[in-house]
Amino acid sequence: MKYCSYRHNRIRIMFGLLTLIIVLTACTRTWIPVETRIIPSPSAPVETPERSTPTPDEEANGVNYAVVWLEAEETLTVTKPAGISGMVVGELAHGQREIQLTGGSTRLGSSTWVEIYIPGGGVGWVNAWNLTENVSASDFCQDNRVNSLLDDINLALVDEDGELLARLVNPERGLTLRHDWWNPEILISPDNVHGLFSDHSEVDWGVLSGGQFPIRGSFRQIIAPQLEDVFTSSLEIACNHMITGVTSQPAIWPECFNNMNFYTFHRPSPEGGNQFDWRTWTIGIEYVNGQPYISVMIQYRGDI
């Protein structure tokens, strides 16, 4: 099953609707200091919009872009003018990088479209959702701002501080969550991240392995305890490299995020215990105007 298509499979949480009120007993958590071992990284028709005036700012500051949220067999259509009703003037491959923007942009409904220089010549428009600032793996793994971001994530989880978490999340995309890498994507809008720890709305997170048992509940009920299980343990941490334990399911960074850098946080199975009792969270990080933010959080677990 594929869940990276923004057009067809994006599931949005509508806070305040279909609310399941859960009575929770208040408690104080003690956050155990994290002992880490760092593992190095291996080598519908729309109206034609008015066009905004392009500026060469992206070229001037050296920023270029890469394609994301696209399956390996798909291409990103370039149109002219902007919008799905525009004439197709080019295509970008799944792994395309070093895409230059002209500076032109326009809003169509809930989507932003940007004008790009088409590789090979000419200009055209693409949905900005499918572009991310192009940052090399080596530059990302050496960026101290990312380390600070990860420290702040830990703090937000310690204090269940939704306001802090909201400041760390991609201001353009919001936060995409997957209970498991093969389960559907749940998109939390930027405006709703701050309420994750206090909102009791029931969410359909997908199904357990085998597809027989649905996973339903609030973020506080379902996701927060599984994050806590990892971030309060002795961890193995890696940049742009997956760490997993024994599992019958493949544990992969989804191909639609191949151009997105990430960190892995792995809580190994107990020594001498159940070899399937491990858990990993990966955090996909994107840059917006040169600043790193959280965009994606995906869980991996052992199963039998």
Describe the structure.
With 304 residues, the protein is of the alpha+beta class. The chain folds into two domains: 11-30 and 137-301, Roll (Nuclear Transport Factor 2, Chain: A); 57-133, SH3 Domains (SH3 type barrels). Helix content is 15%, strand content 30%. It has five helices and 17 strands. An eight-stranded mixed sheet has the order 1-11-10-17-16-15-14-2. Strands 6-7-8 form a three-stranded antiparallel sheet. The chain has a two-stranded antiparallel ribbon with strand order 3-9. A hairpin with a 6-residue loop joins strand 4 (76-80) and strand 5. The protein is globular and about 60 Å long. It starts with 10 loop residues before the first strand and ends with a strand.
The sequence of SSEs as H and E is EEHEEEEEEEHHHEEEEHEEEE
Strand % is: 25-35%
The helicity comes to 10-25%
Distance between the termini: 20 Å
Residue-averaged pLDDT: 83
Classify the fold: give the CATH topology of the largest domain: Nuclear Transport Factor 2, Chain: A
Just give the CATH class of the largest domain: Alpha Beta
Named CATH architecture of the largest domain: Roll
Category from helices, strands and their pairing: alpha+beta
Query: Treating each run of at least 4 consecutive H or I residues as one helix, how many helices?
Result: 5
Estimate nothing, just give the exact number of structural domains: 2
- How are the strands ordered across the major sheet? 1-11-10-17-16-15-14-2
Query: Which value, in Å, is the CA radius of gyration?
Result: 20 Å
Q: Enumerate the spans where pLDDT stays under 50 for 5 or more consecutive residues.
A: 6-60
What's the story with the biggest beta sheet? Answer: 8 strands, mixed
